[in-house]
């Protein structure tokens, strides 16, 4: 039951009607009998500043941030966690003691999903894409593990810009290139992560980056797209006998980290995961 004492957690995005986060977090709050509710707010870009001020004014305890606000919202937050600042994007905000502070849990979510399946240290990792998700995952990988990282993008120049930024901030090295290198490089890779929207609903029929014949069975294939649950890339990897990781796992674990930030408690991970699969 929602009362005047119920703590509100929100979601800022545009659009937000497709989001699975309300189902995941409200299931956790209900299971733990916590007096919280998670509410999505459709925030148009021109009103983002006012929305952050409104959340503070309304005593909202925190909120997630999704497309297209993850980068711009940093301009309106008085405090940003160092990791989120380096990534250049915020997906979680906590409001406490009169201060709104931004965090980024996307990279952590992706890494935890992979760690469930395979060790990461000293592996060759290929990341497809050079956008915000790639940036978060790359940062988390390079700051947490010794890996050989290769970022491939449709426009190699954008991948090179990301490389320069990561190397400058993390004092590390990595490689970049265009998608045409994928067929050659996949043979020696251990982990492949797709951070692009290729194959995302309603474009399920997009041609996958690789066919089954091109995917070595030893490669772990992680597609961050979670709708549909089985993208074209995941289907081809399964045919090849490779181990696969659904994008739903990243969504789950970034939510787990956000839950901890807002409440200071460990969430019921199994309940959150069941809610996601039930919703889909």
TrEMBL record:
Gene Ontology biological process terms, A to Z: amino acid biosynthetic process; aromatic amino acid family biosynthetic process; chorismate biosynthetic process; shikimate metabolic process
Known pathway: Metabolic intermediate biosynthesis; chorismate biosynthesis; chorismate from D-erythrose 4-phosphate and phosphoenolpyruvate: step 4/7
Protein name, entry field: Shikimate dehydrogenase (NADP(+))
General function of this protein: Involved in the biosynthesis of the chorismate, which leads to the biosynthesis of aromatic amino acids. Catalyzes the reversible NADPH linked reduction of 3-dehydroshikimate (DHSA) to yield shikimate (SA).
The enzyme's E.C. designation: 1.1.1.25
Coiled coil: none
Keyword NADP recorded: yes
Keywords: Amino-acid biosynthesis, Aromatic amino acid biosynthesis, NADP, Oxidoreductase
GO molecular function, one term: shikimate 3-dehydrogenase (NADP+) activity
Domain SDH C-terminal: 247-276
PANTHER family membership: BIFUNCTIONAL 3-DEHYDROQUINATE DEHYDRATASE_SHIKIMATE DEHYDROGENASE, CHLOROPLASTIC, SHIKIMATE DEHYDROGENASE
Domain Shikimate dehydrogenase substrate binding N-terminal per the UniProt entry, residue ranges: 11-93
Oligomeric form and interacting partners: Homodimer.
Top EC group: oxidoreductase
Catalytic residues as annotated in Swiss-Prot or TrEMBL: 70 (proton acceptor)
Binding site for NADP(+): 129-133, 153-158, 224, 247
The UniProt record lists the keyword Amino-acid biosynthesis: yes
Binding site for shikimate: 19-21, 66, 91, 106, 226, 254
Domain of life, per lineage: Archaea
Annotated ranges, domain Quinate/shikimate 5-dehydrogenase/glutamyl-tRNA reductase: 118-196
């Amino acid at each position: 039951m929602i009362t005047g004492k119920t703590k509100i957690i929100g979601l800022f995005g545009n659009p937000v009607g497709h989001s699975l986060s309300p189902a995941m977090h409200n299931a956790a709050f209900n299971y733990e009998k916590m007096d919280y509710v998670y509410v999505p707010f459709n925030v148009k870009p021109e009103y983002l500043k006012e929305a952050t001020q409104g959340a503070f004014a309304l005593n909202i305890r925190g909120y997630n941030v999704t497309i297209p606000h993850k980068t711009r919202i940093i301009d309106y937050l008085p405090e940003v966690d160092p990791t989120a600042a380096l990534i250049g994007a915020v997906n979680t905000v906590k409001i406490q003691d009169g201060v709104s502070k931004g965090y980024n849990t996307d990279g952590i979510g992706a890494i935890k999903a992979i760690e469930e399946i395979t060790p990461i240290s000293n592996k060759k990792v290929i990341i497809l894409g050079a956008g915000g998700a790639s940036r978060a995952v790359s940062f988390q990988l390079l700051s947490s593990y010794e890996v050989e990282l290769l970022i491939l993008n449709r426009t190699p120049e954008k991948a090179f810009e990301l490389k320069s930024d990561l190397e400058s901030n993390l004092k590390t090295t990595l490689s970049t290139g265009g998608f045409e290198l994928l067929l050659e490089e996949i043979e020696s890779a251990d982990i492949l992560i797709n951070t692009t929207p290729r194959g995302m609903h309603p474009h399920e029929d997009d041609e996958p980056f690789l066919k089954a014949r091109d995917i070595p069975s030893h490669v772990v294939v992680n597609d961050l797209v979670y709708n549909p649950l089985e993208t074209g890339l995941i289907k081809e990897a399964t045919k090849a006998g490779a181990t696969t990781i659904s994008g739903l796992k990243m969504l789950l674990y970034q939510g787990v980290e956000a839950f901890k930030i807002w409440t200071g408690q460990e969430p019921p991970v199994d309940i959150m995961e069941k809610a996601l699969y039930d919703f889909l």
